[in-house]
Amino acid sequence: MMGPYATMILGDYGADVIKVESPEGDVMRHAAPMRHPQMGAMYLQGNRNKRSIVLDLKKAGGRAALLRLAASADVFVHNVRPAAMSRLKLAASDLLAVNPRLVYASLHGFGEQGPYAGRPAYDDLIQGMTALPALTGRITGEPRYSPATMADRIVGLNAAHAILAALFHRNRSGEGQSIEIPMFETMAQFVLGDHMAGRSFEPPIGPPGYSRLLSPDRRPYQTSDGYVCALVYNDKQWTAFFRAIGLENEADRDPRLNSIASRTGNYDFVYGWFSEVMKTRTTAEWMRLFEEADIPHAPLHDLDSLIDDPHLAAVGLLQSIEHPTEGTLRVAGPAATWSRTPPSIRHYPPGLGEHGETILREAGFSDEGIEALVTEGALVNPPKDS
């Protein structure tokens, strides 16, 4: 999802995104559930505002067509292993020779200067290599992956802003360039920003790991009839909480609760104590108390209640779009609000190869040239009845 997610963001910002697919199509097209073949839900959620062309890049005509598209493009994005792109003669040097103003963005597993260069990489593998399952295991006793394509989407976000920065440089200097956004290094930076801890210093003054995030009782809190999320964080909030539960007198409290220095030095005790207190009242009682005391809190959503959240409804995050084969689709739209150039959903996620001939005509191909590509098998059009 990292390449599709990055380019979806750029599409939301107004880019004309041409999605070049193999004859088999984006693998996420086949991820259930789906109403029709090659239109899986994950694909539909990550490919709006794009046009699709199917080119067999192993054929001479397919490669030539891609180079012709790249000649007038601003950005070329791929999430294929670099060795495969080199075999296809579609490396950065090949495309920049055709278009020196191009921003060539490579999204892959590992930086090309390190010993892991060229290895295959998927979200699960990168999560594992950047200690996320191990950190979960320290708390739960069993290492588990995040139930979201976290690495793919974080790398995709980084790719989107790296591409925009490269375009800013190009617009000032006229120079294109190649940029590499590796999954492992990007996610290592993400994790270690929290967890370098004592190894931030040379020599180390303690082990890695941010103790607050690793406290076993830092979790949604069980109440007498459910769960609630809350974070009593600063001194003002703690004072309000103690007042609300009848512990306003400092002498009545464990001294480990009485100052920010004591609390930050005893996270496991503080979270454990707080967990036990939370079990003494109902979810509704705690939500009301936190609201009155101005203490940060939130309901514990499941997926259905998240989708139906009234705030998301009010701000219009979930948008309905009409698709010619899939009917009405609900998608999570752009989250940011802009005063002058708001992102928008302008086009439904395309069928496989839906726009191939149109894209090639825009690039200057004649009808005869397009037919030659079809005959060669370099261009694959969708079936006539699709």
UniProtKB/TrEMBL annotation:
The keyword Cell division does not apply. InterPro entries: CoA-transferase_III_domain (IPR050483), CoA-Trfase_fam_III (IPR003673), CoA-Trfase_III_dom3_sf (IPR044855), CoA-Trfase_III_dom_1_sf (IPR023606). GO terms for molecular function: CoA-transferase activity. The keyword Membrane does not apply. It comes from Bradyrhizobium sediminis. This is CoA transferase. Transmembrane segments: none annotated. Keywords: Transferase.
